[in-house]
């Protein structure tokens, strides 16, 4: 995996799409990244969509690999849907991961940006400061901007 090796050496974070793939082979599920994360323990990896429809795997990856970070730009728009977490489950997952490891927009906002930001600010359980970090400051830290 020479690209991962180079990114690790140069401290360049990578972003990976995550979720359930249409053919159900598991290639984009968060647990599919485990072998790569083991091989490159200093590579900063952003798991987009907090795992998407495979969101239940996200916490396991976060707890096992401290070099993982997460983007909530898509999942924030479909909480309470058939495949998504409730607002409370999403907020609790962010707390369990560590709010400092979650950001918004690194995989580009899929929906109306203002609405997505409002959705973050409407999440329960998180402090105003944590929500503000998710909206901007965390990306600066995680992406090394």
Helix and strand layout, with pairings?
Blueprint: H1 2-10, E1 14-16, H2 34-39, E2 45-47, H3 58-64, E3 68-71, H4 87-97, E4 102-103, H5 113-122, H6 128-143
Parallel strand pairs: 1-2, 2-3, 3-4
What is this structure, in a nutshell?
The chain is of the alpha/beta class.
Mean pLDDT: 92
Cross-sheet strand order for the largest sheet = 1-2-3-4
Helix count equals 6
* Proportion of helical residues: 40-55%
CATH class type: Alpha Beta
CATH architectural group: Alpha-Beta Barrel
CATH superfamily: Metal-dependent hydrolases
Q: What is the makeup of the main sheet?
A: 4 strands, parallel
CATH topology: TIM Barrel
Radius of gyration in whole Å, from Cα?
14 Å
Please state the overall shape, judged from the principal axes of the Cα atoms: globular
**What string, H for helix and E for strand, traces the elements in order?**
HEHEHEHEHH
First-to-last CA distance: 25 Å
What's the total count of β strands?
4
Q: What number of structural domains do the residues give? A: 1
Structural class: alpha/beta
User: What share of residues are in beta strands?
Assistant: 5-15%
Low-confidence stretches: none
Describe the structure.
- By secondary structure, the chain is an alpha/beta fold.
- The protein has a single domain (2-140), classed as Alpha-Beta Barrel (TIM Barrel).
- It has helices spanning 2-10, 34-39, 58-64, 87-97, 113-122, 128-143; strands at 14-16, 45-47, 68-71, 102-103.
- It has a four-stranded parallel β-sheet with strand order 1-2-3-4.
- It is globular, with a radius of gyration of 14 Å.
- 35% of the residues are buried.
- The model has no long low-confidence stretch (mean pLDDT 92).
